[in-house]
User: Fold these one by one.
Assistant:
Number 1:
Amino acid sequence: MEIPVINELSKESKNRTKMVEEIVKLERKLFPKHESLARSFDEELRKRNCGLLYSEVGGKLAGYIMYSWPSSLFASITKLAVKENCRRQGHGETLMKAAIEKCRTRKIQRLMLHVDPSRTAALALYRKLGFEIDKLIECYYSSDRHAYRMYLEFNND
């Protein structure tokens, strides 16, 4: 198994256009239309307090994570996606750890995310990384799909 390479997508990235196209294609494949950022992905990335890390194996996209930090008080993981044929290989965990580290360097106090309670693999990963369930938000994704709001507190001594 090849070792994944984690890259940060920035405005100056040489492969930005190609990578955004690949990520949008993955976004459309994995998320229902009402949960997808495919239409506004590039616009989201242009925001000042938004970051995107992606994982490559053999030069091919394996997954990505998008996060934002509206203030120094908190940041949010807004998307985490891994290609179906790359799952259960550590890409999600590697991307999460990289995003957590980026937030730590920005002196963020709390990192939050939302997850569907039925996504047991995702829940297990977030708990493994130290996230705790804050509360259940009913009808978060749709009228019959709820979400746990989870958080990770940072000790920025």
Number 2:
Amino acid sequence: MEQEHIMDRSQRVALQTGKQLLQLLAFVIHQSYKKYKEHSNHGEQNWRQFNESGYSKDMREFLEGEVNLDKVKKELKKSGVRFHFKKETDGKYQIWFESKDHVVLENSINKAINDIMKDPKKAKDELLKKPHEKTPKEQMAAIVKDQKAKGKEAVTKKTKGKAIS
């Protein structure tokens, strides 16, 4: 009888210990998940994910030029900014970011400007797209621009020649 009482008591202690251990494990997993979600929200977001946060949003507009957007995205992600690029129909790009990251964005822009001022050639090599990184549309636009600068037409119009008789 006393032996059963001791076994029953040890089973309750083991059950309580197991329950507390599982609660601790659930808490640790929940905290890890929150930390993971917090860190995974940096960088480029799709429009829906970007608008889920409660922070106010700001926007800057850039012309689609020779700037390599992939490198800009990489720099913004490195600085921990949540952002979204939106392409407009007129060839402009909008970069949307949270207002709280305005200072970080300005600092990265100022850093880029200072780098350009210190060593323009190095900055040009880093920021401008290489010919193999350009899309075919951008390559054609560059060729047409070069031809117009030389004073030639990019494509000459051909007239119908004499037929063979």
Number 3:
Amino acid sequence: MDGLILAGEGVPPGNYGNYGYPNSGYSACEEENERLTESLRNKVTAIKSLSIEIGHEVKNQNKLLAEMDSQFDSTTGFLAFMEHY
């Protein structure tokens, strides 16, 4: 077998050089994983931002409700007071 070079001969283990067969499949999977990871990262960032905005809105609504409750209590007290006269 002098002069005959077998596929992968002289290439370090785990590195398939320019033959491309194993690396091309792995690379395609890695590229797809990277793309999906980036897409997921963008979605998580959007959801986080939305949840923060919802939290701010809930705080504002609770403050408004507390103010309304206080005003209703004042009005109820005033009406109760006026009933006696």
